[in-house]
Every structure is written in C-alpha cells, then in structure tokens.
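Amino Acid Chain and Its Fold in Token Form
===========================================
What this section holds: a protein sequence and its matching fold, both as plain text.
Structure line: whole-number tokens from a learned vocabulary of local backbone shapes, matched to residues.
Purpose: to set a sequence beside its fold so the mapping can be learned.
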Amino acid sequence: MSTQLDPLKTTAPELHRFWFFVSTEKQWYDIIRECRSWFGKNWQGMAKVRKKLSARHGRLRIGPMPVWFEVPDPRFATWVSVKLSLQVQSDAKYHSGEK
C-alpha cells in the first residue's frame, strides 16, 4: 500500500493496491474507465500495460496478465471483479503466492 501527496503537501487518503488479471486491452480500459468514474484522478495504475499485452499476444502467450491499480476505496476491487467478471487479488495475497 502506498500514499500519494498532493501539491498542497497534504496527505491524500491511503491507496490500496489490487491486482486484476486481464486478457485484453478492452478489459484494461474498462478498469481505467471505472477508476475515472469512481475517483477522478485520485488513483494510479501500472504503466505500459497495452505494450505488454500486445507483446504477450505476439509471442502466443495468450492468457491473463496481472495488472495493478491503486485506489482509495477497497470496495472498488469487488465491484470491478463482479461487473467485468475478472479475477482480482489484494497486494498482500498476490505477493504471498496464493493464486
């Protein structure tokens, strides 16, 4: 988990990292769209995902790729998981090796 600072030097709410397992660019963009509708600009996501997804499909490694998003509300992960039918794990569970 991380925190984010705004330009006024006040601490923003704590961000919670979740790992979503996406197979397509559309799924990734759908998560981004949900982040924007829930939180505006108060969230973060993994960089260069589109490039990594394209490379995976180019090498015939088709399958879900773990992509992280940091959001202020942990309920978001459950909502997106149900709405988009995606597997999601908390950062702690992802790093403990429970897949």
